[in-house]
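Action item from last meeting closed. Structure (351 res):
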């Protein structure tokens, strides 16, 4: 049980609402291995519809959704998946991809903004010089981009990248773990962003507030093979309608309130920036994440995290900075409490 007064470690720490627990208790269920769970099937249909795809496959984690998505396009060892360095698939999941599918990546540094442009995409998709054959099976992109603070890859840039991939005959997989945050911040429908990818996944268990689950979506013909891979990866989870019931509520209700998380993240960022000038790049705060540079705090990263924890604030780190994430279980009082802790830290530092 977390002992933090305000837990900003991640948007995955939310607890299911009373409505979700009720729906879970009453869910109609069946054996998902046999495709028999009506609540899972409903969630898969609804998820695909919301993001404008033909089919959806409900799986326990975002990692599994990505791994099945990548594997669907990957032809085998000796081939490559192209992506920016530092994305979830090319960092946290790099060994998962190698172990489960033999996937090796061709990466390129995207720089501080986190995503690659059309020119870099063209570079990534060039035929292999040595063999002069096409070896890149897939381009993988991410939106929002977590490693740079939840920034939104602009739709024009995504479209330009997609065009380069189309011209090269390479499909695109979108890690849309937080696609609804990207949609809320850019005023687009999630389906407009998802339209730029052949397959895409999103997490129900992050900003949308479900306890468990992600959905991989794509064309109707991915369905059979995606289901085979889900079983292969140990993801055939029987009466999963219990969790799909919460997922359905998250999918309907979650996207409507993400702008609140974004407003609170901005308020938090502005407040910390006032207390520790130079610690925050406000231009990077576009969705529900705030990255704090501890150089301006005058304490090493881990000591700052420890002091925050002692003051009741849960935080983590990414790319050498403190990461704070707003979510469904953080209200205005939580933001005020977190800012009090940062002020207390400043007093301790004599600032
Ligand atoms: C961008 C991104 N993709 C994928 C994942 C994987 O999701 P999960 O933790 O459900 O495996 C995460 C998790 O934090 C993520 O941030």
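Sequence:
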């Amino acid at each position: 049980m977390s002992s933090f007064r305000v837990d900003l470690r991640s948007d995955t720490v939310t607890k299911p609402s009373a409505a979700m627990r009720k729906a879970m208790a009453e869910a109609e269920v069946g054996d998902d291995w046999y495709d028999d769970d009506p609540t899972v099937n409903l969630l898969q249909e609804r998820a695909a519809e919301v993001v404008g795809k033909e089919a959806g496959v409900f799986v326990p984690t975002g990692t599994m959704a990505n791994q099945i998505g990548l594997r669907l396009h990957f032809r085998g060892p000796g081939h490559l998946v192209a992506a920016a360095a530092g994305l979830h698939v090319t960092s946290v999941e790099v060994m998962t991809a190698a172990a489960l599918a033999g996937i090796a990546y061709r990466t390129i540094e995207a720089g501080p903004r986190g995503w690659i442009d059309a020119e870099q995409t063209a570079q990534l998709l060039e035929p292999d010089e040595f063999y002069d054959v096409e070896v890149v099976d897939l381009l993988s992109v991410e939106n929002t981009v977590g490693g740079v603070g939840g920034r939104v890859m602009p739709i024009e840039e995504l479209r330009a990248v997609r065009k380069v991939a189309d011209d090269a005959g390479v499909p695109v997989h979108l890690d849309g773990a937080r696609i609804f945050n990207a949609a809320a911040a850019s005023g687009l429908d999630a389906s407009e962003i998802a339209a730029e990818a052949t397959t895409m996944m999103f997490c129900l268990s992050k900003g949308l507030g479900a306890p468990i689950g992600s959905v991989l979506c794509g064309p109707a013909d991915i369905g059979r093979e995606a289901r085979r891979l889900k079983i292969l990866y140990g993801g055939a989870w029987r009466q999963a309608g219990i969790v799909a019931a919460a997922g359905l509520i998250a999918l309907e209700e979650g996207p409507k309130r993400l702008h609140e998380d974004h407003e609170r993240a901005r308020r938090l960022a502005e407040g910390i920036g006032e207390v520790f000038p130079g610690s925050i790049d406000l231009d990077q705060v576009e969705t529900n994440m705030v990255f704090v540079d501890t150089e301006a705090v005058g304490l090493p990263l881990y000591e700052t995290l420890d002091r925050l924890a002692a003051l009741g604030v849960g935080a983590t780190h990414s790319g050498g900075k403190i990461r704070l994430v707003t979510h469904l279980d953080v209200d205005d009082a939580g933001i005020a409490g977190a800012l009090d802790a940062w002020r207390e830290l400043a007093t301790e530092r004599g600032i």
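Note appended to the action item: The pocket of pyridoxal-5'-phosphate is lined by residues 61-63, 66, 88, 142, 146, 175, 177, 203, 205, 214 (CB under 6 Å).
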